[in-house]
Amino acid sequence: MTTPKHCLVTGAAGFIGSHLCDRLLELGYRVTGLDSLIVGNPANLEAAKQKDGFEFIHQDVADVTPATLEGIDWVFHLAGLADLVPSIQNPENYYHSNVHGTFALLNACRKAKIQRFIYTASSTCYGIPDQYPTPETTPSAPEHPYALTKYLGEQLVMHWAKVYKLPALSLCLFNVYGPRSRTTGAYGAVFGVFLKQKLAGQPFTVVGDGKQTRDFTFVSDVVEAFVKAAESDITNERINICSGNPQSVLTLVELLGGEITHIPKRPGEPDCTWGDITKAKTLLGWEPQVSFPEGVAQMLENIELWREAPLWTPDSIEEATKAWFEHLGSNS
Fold this sequence. Notes:
Shape: globular
Pfam family, one: GDP_Man_Dehyd
Number of strands: 13
Strand order of the largest sheet: 3-2-1-4-5-6-11
Protein name: SDR family oxidoreductase
InterPro entries: NAD(P)-bd_dom, NAD(P)-bd_dom_sf
Structural class: alpha/beta
Distance between the termini: 59 Å
């Protein structure tokens, strides 16, 4: 009987990372979760901690050493800062976490001779692309520091794969949603904003006319893509992971049910995100399984998770996004 692979998941207490830990354990893999807990929520790991084969390390990814990786076969790198507006306000923090942290982890992985390294890239790296659905060959054009730091981290990963022969893949994620997505902190993803507004009986704050579309991708589908990526022998590639079926914000409002109020459109934001998933299908044998109505229904079933989330109003959103308009307005 072969010994199961031992996986390290960075950002394990985060939204996607915690779901990935659960799935890897379910499949019989050993899992070490690593998280600084600056952003991650320890409650997300309650299920994992109840299972054999799981351990947790409270550590910043930038402090990982080869000793940390002793006995580790696969590394899933999900740690990092993800909110867009704070990246404009505090680019130093984003560079430390998303670039320096990735560099430190890659160096440790190279020295520890890790068998598989899966990086979490972001579709924001494409900026406002000229082609839809957007293939992986599209030039990167980051519009804000978050996108730039994720792109720089990905470039480090691809360089390590080329020069040091680190068996690495980059999964480019589009608009991931699902239970455990962040409920605290800065103004961010539309689901968290809308679900709290619904609980409070307040209108949904729709940016612009609401006809903009997003390639919403349910978290369980994303997790399966990570597993398939690790189990494959593909290396040194960027692969889009998305539904390939973009939905408008107005469609989301219709599924959630409620009144709306409009707020100004933000410069530097695409009217559409829509990834080409041909590569994921052909190289990984992966395609999404959860339809948008099914995913939204699951979010509504778990709406109480957002009971303590901040309630965003047009006024508080205007205040929170001042830096966005100040620094990106000239790019529109």
